[in-house]
Write a structure and sequence with these properties.
Largest sheet: 4 strands, antiparallel
Strand order of the largest sheet: 3-2-1-4
Structural class: alpha+beta
Number of helices: 3
Helix content: 25-40%
Order of helices and strands: HHHEEEE
Number of strands: 4
Radius of gyration: 13 Å
Shape: globular
Length: 92
C-alpha cells in the first residue's frame, strides 16, 4: 500500500537519527533506507531520483501523498529521472 505522509516522515526521521551518513549529504542512502523502512512496515513511498542542470546536481528523495517528504523548496528545480511508485491496487 502507499505510505502516507506521516509514515514516510517517521521513516525518514528514524534513518537520519540512526545514521550519520543518512543525516549528512547521503541523499541516496537516506532515501533508500527510508523507503525500505516503510516497506518493512507494510507501506511504500514514491522513491525518486532527479537532476537539475544549472548548476548540475543530482538528488534522491521520497514522496508521499503527492509531495516530497521533508525536502528543501529547491527540490522544485529538479527534474525526476527515475520514479518507483507503489503499484496501484483496487480499493486504494
Amino acid at each position: 500500500r502507499p505510505a502516507d505522509r506521516a509514515e514516510a516522515l517517521a521513516a525518514r526521521q528514524a534513518v537520519v537519527a540512526l545514521s550519520m551518513r543518512c543525516a549528512g549529504q547521503g541523499c541516496l542512502q537516506r532515501s533508500i533506507a527510508a523507503a525500505l523502512l516503510c516497506r518493512t512496515r507494510g507501506a511504500w513511498p514514491t522513491w525518486r531520483t532527479g537532476v537539475r542542470t544549472a548548476p548540475f546536481r543530482a538528488h534522491a528523495w521520497i514522496e508521499a501523498e503527492g509531495g516530497p517528504v521533508d525536502e528543501p523548496a529547491e527540490l522544485a528545480h529538479f527534474h525526476p529521472l527515475i520514479t518507483i511508485a507503489p503499484e496501484p491496487r483496487p480499493g486504494w
